[in-house]
Structures are given as C-alpha cells and as structure tokens.
Design a protein that fits this description.
alpha/beta, globular, HAD_sf, HAD-like_sf
C-alpha cells in the first residue's frame, strides 16, 4: 500500500513530505539542499526504480523485498535478493532507525 513507510515513520516522530517516488525532482532537490547525502536513504520495494534512483543519486538504499512488487519472484526463486549498495530487509518492520550523529 502506498505510503506505508511514511505513515510508520511519522508514528515514530519523523517528518514526512509525500511525493511519488522516484520523483524526477528528487535528484535536483538533493543537489540544492543542505542535506548530508551520507545520511540520506531511499527506501523502496523496487530494485529497478527505487534502488536504481539511490545508485544514481549516490545515496544508500534499503530494499524491502518481502512486502513489495518482487516478493513472489523471490519466493519462487526467479530472482535473488542480493543488493550491493545498501541494505536488504524482508519487510518494513525490519528497518531500525538509530540516533543520528
């Protein structure tokens, strides 16, 4: 369901700005802001769009495969769960946020 991560993050006090992702303006927003890219993550269920964006933007990615569009292919062995530029978790519930530096 769209917005699942955003709603969950808000419950934990996070500040959320909703846009569809990957949104073409996201890359320019990253470049124009004072956001520290080493503390910026793209979280999504698509290795092609969400994590492709993370790789292009030079940020880390979190691939939540178990709840996403690739889940059936992975469970049926049609696709592996390796992802070299970030973190792989089965579901959104497996993501932990720690205090920032």
């Amino acid at each position: 369901m769209p917005g699942t991560i955003a709603a969950w993050y808000e419950e934990y006090g996070g500040d959320v700005h909703r846009v569809g992702k990957p949104y073409c303006g996201m890359m320019s927003c990253l470049g124009l802001s004072d956001v520290d890219l080493k503390n910026t993550w793209m979280v999504g269920d698509s290795i092609y769009t969400d994590l492709g964006f993370a790789s292009s933007a030079g940020i880390k990615g979190v691939w939540c495969w178990g709840d996403g569009i690739h889940a059936d292919d992975i469970r049926e062995g049609k696709m592996g769960i390796e992802y070299g530029n970030g973190v792989v978790v089965e579901g959104f519930k497996d993501i932990e946020f720690n205090d920032r530096d």
